[in-house]
């Protein structure tokens, strides 16, 4: 056990402990799969036998093993109510294995795109989730060793029992390949910052752009990328130019309250600034969080806003729907230099 500042502990787990906890990575213990790796339920890794999420990463560069351990130690110091806690890791496998706190509920992606009960998808609830997620990202950006998430999306925002937002899945992103001949981009189509695609430089403003897409999802209840591969950001920008934003906004929230038009306009304007082509013209994540907090305070809670919250709970550990946890939804993808040009054309336009 390694001790770090603020009495926060980070544990290096042995191969035997991880294999025992996941029953040797038994397929029946899988609770999520995606482009960054596979997530398993883990047991018996702490004295209280509290379940954990064990993530087996993909795309590891062996030459960075020591640097990776140091970076994980830094991430373990992150202690925020709206960030899924990184508890430790194991470096005794071919790829890194990360251990996170287990959040029993599903994701924002599920709430927006799959949940049937509209009473737990009110404007008030959506704004609170957005504000708390923004605060979490702002916290990561403000650390002494600033941390950029790199894959902000609705599927990486987990919701607690009371719909408390927790940003997840930022550990595996530091395993990027350093092959001299191939530059690799990690991210999710529809959320990728066009500027990042052009120069492979991840910054805090890359997270801001991706979060802008999440705001659009909350406003429209449309996916970041349509079946026809049309990006929601492009559709939104076109609607703003034509003055047809109202046609894009989710009908569920348009009929909620007297000042809904003003709030929707404010969120849309904020999303537009987050999606500015130049990172310099995008607000900081702390500014985004501040503006969202003010908007939350201006919303009149919907009378049915607390009804049905328990319907997001997952009954049992390995139901058919558990793959929604962490990874189901838009998939994190890896892109080589050859794919860069075509992707840039798609998302920069």
From TrEMBL:
The keyword Acyltransferase appears for this protein: no
Domain (Protein kinase) ranges: 25-305
Swiss-Prot/TrEMBL keywords: ATP-binding, Kinase, Nucleotide-binding, Receptor, Transferase
Lineage top rank: taxon: Eukaryota
An example Gene Ontology CC term for this record: plasma membrane
Name of the protein this chain belongs to: Putative wall-associated receptor kinase-like 16
Annotated GO biological process: cell surface receptor signaling pathway
Glycoprotein found in the keyword field: no
Molecular function (Gene Ontology), one example: ATP binding
Xref: SMART domains: S_TKc (SM00220)
Origin species: Dichanthelium oligosanthes
SUPFAM superfamilies referenced in this protein's UniProt entry, alphabetically: Protein kinase-like (PK-like)
InterPro entries on file: Kinase-like_dom_sf, Prot_kinase_dom, WAK-like
């Amino acid at each position: 056990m390694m001790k770090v500042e603020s009495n926060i502990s980070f544990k290096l787990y042995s191969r035997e402990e991880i294999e025992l906890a996941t029953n040797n990575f038994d397929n029946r213990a899988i609770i999520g799969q995606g482009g960054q790796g596979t997530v398993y339920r883990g047991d018996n890794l702490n004295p209280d036998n509290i379940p954990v999420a064990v993530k087996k990463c993909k795309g590891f560069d062996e030459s960075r093993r020591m640097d990776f351990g140091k970076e994980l130690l830094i991430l373990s110091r992150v202690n925020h109510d709206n960030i899924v806690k990184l508890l430790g890791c194991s470096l005794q496998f071919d790829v890194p294995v990360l251990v996170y706190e287990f959040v029993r509920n599903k994701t924002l992606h599920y709430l927006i795109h799959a949940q049937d009960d509209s009473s737990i998808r009110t404007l008030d609830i959506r704004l609170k989730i957005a504000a708390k997620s923004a605060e979490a990202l702002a916290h990561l950006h403000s650390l002494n060793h600033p941390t950029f998430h790199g894959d902000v999306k609705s599927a990486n925002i987990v919701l607690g029992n009371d719909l408390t937002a927790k940003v997840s899945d930022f550990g595996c992103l530091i395993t990027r390949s350093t092959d001299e001949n191939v530059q690799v981009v990690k991210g999710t189509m529809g959320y990728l910052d066009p500027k990042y695609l052009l120069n492979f430089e991840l910054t805090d403003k890359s997270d801001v752009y991706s979060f802008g897409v999440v705001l659009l999802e909350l406003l429209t209840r449309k996916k970041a990328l349509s079946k026809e591969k049309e990006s929601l950001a492009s559709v939104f920008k076109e609607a703003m130019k034509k003055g047809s934003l109202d046609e894009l906004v989710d009908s569920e929230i348009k009929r909620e309250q007297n000042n809904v038009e003003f709030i929707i306009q404010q969120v849309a304007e904020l999303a537009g600034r987050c999606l500015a082509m130049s990172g310099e013209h995008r607000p900081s994540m702390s500014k985004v969080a501040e503006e969202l907090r003010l908007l939350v305070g201006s919303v009149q809670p919907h009378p049915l806003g607390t009804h049905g919250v328990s319907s997001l709970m997952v009954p049992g550990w390995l139901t058919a729907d558990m793959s929604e946890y962490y990874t189901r939804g838009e998939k994190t993808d890896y892109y080589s230099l050859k794919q860069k040009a075509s992707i840039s054309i798609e998302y920069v336009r």
